[in-house]
Write a structure and sequence with these properties.
Blueprint (H helix, E strand, L loop, with lengths): L2 E6 L5 H11 L6 E8 L2 E8 L2 H7 L9 E7 L14 E2 L3 E9 L2 H10 L11 H11 L4 H11 L2 E9 L2 E10 L4 E5 L2 E5 L2 H4 L5 E4 L5 E5 L2 E5 L5 E2 L4 E2 L15 H7 L1 H12 E2 L4 E2 L13 E6 L1 H17 L3 E6 H4 L10 E7 L5 H12 L3 E6 L5 H5 L2 E4 L12 H20 L5 H11 L2 H8 L4 H12 L2 E6 L3 H16 L2 E6 L16 E5 L6 H12 L4 E7 L12 E5 L7 H20 L17
Parallel strand pairs: 18-19, 18-20, 20-21, 21-22, 23-24, 23-25, 25-26, 26-27
Antiparallel strand pairs: 1-4, 1-10, 2-3, 2-4, 5-6, 6-7, 7-8, 8-12, 9-10, 9-11, 11-15, 12-13, 13-14, 16-17
Helix pairs in contact: 3-4, 4-5, 8-13, 8-15, 9-13, 9-17, 15-19, 16-19, 17-19
The structure holds fructose -6-phosphate.
The site of fructose -6-phosphate has 15 residues, from α9 and α17.
């Protein structure tokens, strides 16, 4: 999950490469680098840390060259320092790489025996030297084809050559790569986002393909080096979403945008006039589907888990959830009457994509719930349900989570109704209730000062727990994930009823514990579990919903009451205070909220 940019132009390219790299930092930000070609030389600059560091350390304005490649890195092989930063170069070839070369150790030995010297600890450097070696005896296309055949693993590559000063080669297997077309210049980028400020005309490379990008021409080749024709897509423009506006952080903006996220989702999918859900072009007869498997990673996995509870509550379908990195290597029993749903904000997550690919190879029914509709997961799924959130820039997923659970909920209702498992009256009632959801989220967002104050206690503690049952359990997991990834405080999400089977031993005097106990079917049980942790010294933050009945429980440290709505929709509201808790906790600690340490927005490696 690194970011790649390449530009071939009739004017100097370094400023545009830098701008694009800044946009790509969501893919990785532990080091950055650029290589340009000018006067028959490769000029390479690289730095540890952010793109800003690169700008501060070098006089990039005077970096000459009408052709160049750039990279932001998220380290896989070798520590994040300037030596391991990309590009990596030999005397005549310079490479930027996203992905992992699995056979790099063997290839390195082979190349050292041939007299090549290695400077870094990366797997990428073998690509540089393989190409250099093949160019001794082959022309460009042949050298690239031979090199790609020797590489095991996944990659997206941008390559420039000292002796061919008018072209960039791009290649892809596993990791995404796009070509963009501009006036008197053409581009290479690890996704359309990097290219959007320069063009909305894009072609995506397919696995195994490579391309030669010149300022006035792009030629594509398949894995055997044969020319192929590719379609040019026109992308929609949503530049405004890439601006923080008056917010301090993208995450703060994206949390506040959630009423709009839900409003847009409802507008896209709900037919209020006919009280129906517009999921009509479903490619399979609903009777053909007997069970469902939902697959995702991290926050997207929590959306899958949320959907499982709804599916089980409202339909008779058998439902499984799976973490993509586990799914892809298990011996799955593929079933023709199973629908496989892949949930992903970016649509590029390598593990989720691999799980989808496996299902496609086994001719399964595949459906994607994604935000980025131009993504690989969207393109390769048989049916796509976009969440219409607009770009999510903060590394920690917020509005995409709400967008995902909304679309999944609508799918549950639609399938339940088509299968006659939800009565028409209930179906229409539930659709009606959705109308108020944006406003209820808006009201819940008003909890702010209280959460800021509460966050201090979480920061001072050694660790914390997030407990919930039923519909609230996936939200507890999500709350804990947000806190740990942003404020680097250990936080554990747990089913409230499971505490007594071990984790209760963790509870000590003053430990902050979030208990999600809305007034649903699980309420009384959760309140009992809450008492068990209070009795052992926990400082409980109870999050429930407004009700005419008071909470009858003693010694609760703090209570937050979200708005009242039907049980199905409470998870949307419970999520909001947890996102804010994580945000304020990290803010108080002065951490980099939009780019937490060690993480990246789009995880395109295993
Ligand atoms: C956490 C977070 C990650 C992502 C995960 C999957 O806040 O954002 O856990 O949810 O990396 O990413 P996507 O949804 O792009 O597949």
């Amino acid at each position: 999950m690194c970011g790649i940019i390449g530009i071939s132009s009739n004017k100097p390219v370094s400023a545009n490469i830098i701008n694009s790299l800044k946009k790509l930092e969501y893919r990785g930000y532990d080091s950055a680098g650029i290589a340009t070609l000018s006067d028959g030389e490769i000029y390479e600059v690289k730095s540890e840390g952010r793109v800003d560091n690169l700008e501060n350390n070098f006089d990039l304005k005077n970096l000459r060259g009408n052709i160049g490649i750039g990279h932001v890195r998220w380290a896989t092989h070798g520590i994040p320092n300037s030596l391991n930063a990309h590009p990596h170069s030999s005397h005549n070839v310079s490479v930027v790489h996203n992905g992992i070369i699995e056979n790099s150790t063997i290839l390195k030995k082979y190349l050292i025996n041939k007299g090549h010297n290695f400077k870094s600890q990366t797997d990428t450097e073998v690509i540089v030297h393989l190409i250099t070696e093949h160019l001794k005896t082959s022309d460009l296309e042949e050298a690239i084809t031979k090199t790609l055949k020797q590489l095991h693993g996944s990659f997206a590559l941008g390559i420039v050559f000292k002796d061919m000063p008018n072209l960039i080669v791009g290649a892809r297997r596993g990791s995404p790569l796009a070509v963009g077309y501009g006036p008197n210049e053409n581009y290479l980028g690890s996704d359309s986002y990097a290219l959007k400020s320069m063009t909305n005309k894009i072609t995506y490379l397919d696995d195994g393909e490579f391309c030669v990008v010149k300022k006035d021409q792009v030629v594509f080749f398949n894995e055997n080096g044969k020319k192929v024709n590719k379609k040019i897509l026109e992308l929609s423009s949503d530049e405004a979403n890439y601006d923080k506006g008056d917010f301090k952080h993208f995450m703060a903006k994206e949390i506040e945008e959630q009423p709009i996220t839900i409003k847009t989702g409802i507008k896209e999918y709900v037919d209020n006039l006919n009280k129906d859900i517009n999921i009509f072009n479903f490619p399979w007869k609903t009777k053909e589907i007997k069970s469902i498997t939902l697959v995702g990673c991290g926050t997207a996995y929590h959306s899958c888990l949320m959907a499982k509870y709804w599916f089980e509550e409202l339909t008779t379908l058998d439902v499984n959830t799976d973490i993509a990195s586990e799914f892809r290597y298990r011996k799955n029993r593929f079933k023709k009457d199973n629908l496989y749903i892949f949930v992903s904000q970016s649509g590029e997550t390598a593990d989720t994509y691999a799980a989808l690919d496996l299902c496609n190879k086994n001719s399964m029914k595949t459906c994607a719930v994604v935000n980025v509709i131009e993504s690989s997961i969207a393109r390769d799924s048989k049916f796509v349900l976009p969440i219409h959130c607009g770009p999510e820039i903060g590394v920690a997923s917020t509005k995409a989570f709400l967008g995902q659970i909304l679309v999944l909920y609508l799918l549950v209702l639609k399938l339940g109704s088509l299968r006659n498992e939800i009565k028409i009256r209930d179906y229409q009632e539930k659709i009606k209730d959705l109308k108020d959801l944006p406003e209820l989220i808006e009201k819940t967002l008003l909890h702010d000062n209280d959460i800021q104050a509460i966050s201090l206690t979480f920061n001072e503690a050694k660790g914390s727990m997030f407990l919930g049952r039923g519909f609230s359990y996936p939200i507890a997991l999500e709350g804990a994930l947000k806190l740990k990834e942003l404020s680097y405080v250990h936080a554990e999400g747990y089913p409230a009823g499971e505490m007594k089977h071990g984790p209760l031993a963790l509870i000590e005097e003053g430990m902050p514990v979030v208990v999600l106990a809305p007034r649903d079917n699980y309420y009384k049980k959760t309140i009992s579990n809450m008492q068990e942790v209070i009795a052992r010294g926990a400082k409980v933050l109870l999050i429930t919903n407004k009700s005419k009945d008071e909470v009858v429980s003693e010694n609760i440290w703090e209570t937050i009451e979200v708005e009242h709505t039907n049980d199905d929709l409470l998870p949307f509201l419970l999520t909001i205070p947890l996102q804010k808790l994580a945000y304020y906790s990290a803010l108080k600690k002065g951490y980099d909220i939009d780019k937490p340490r060690n993480l990246a927005k789009s995880v395109t490696v295993e």
